[in-house]
TrEMBL record:
One of its GO terms (cellular component) is membrane. The keyword Ion transport applies. This is Putative H(+)-transporting two-sector ATPase. Gene3D superfamilies: ATPase, V1 complex, subunit F. It comes from Lupinus albus (White lupine).
Length: 99
């Protein structure tokens, strides 16, 4: 184990999560969590106190980050904030299809 080379962070990408506590904790235990130098995490734990605005802001932040390759959103959260997801998907499809 000591002879392993360090993981390359220059070309690495993260998985960002917007989910309930159990889902996020499971991914964190699997080693997916990250905290950068500005103390920004790659996850948002959604509970009954989380507002739709907080979810939308986290989604916009994660999709704008260069180091995030995948944004994982639990089904529960997607039902709460489906509008922002729909708008993002439409923009993405229009970009690819040049419609």
């Amino acid at each position: 184990m000591a002879n392993r080379s360090p993981i390359a962070t220059r070309n690495s990408a993260l998985i960002a999560m917007i989910a309930d506590e159990d889902t996020v904790v499971g991914f964190l235990l699997a080693g997916v969590g990250n905290v950068d130098l500005r103390r920004k995490t790659n996850y948002l734990i959604v509970d009954s106190k989380t507002t739709i605005k907080q979810i939308e802001d986290a989604f916009k932040e994660f999709t704008a980050r260069e180091d995030v390759a995948i944004v994982l959103i639990s089904q529960y959260v997607s039902h709460i904030s489906w509008q922002i997801l729909y708008i993002y998907i439409c923009k993405f499809v229009n970009t690819i299809c040049n419609c």
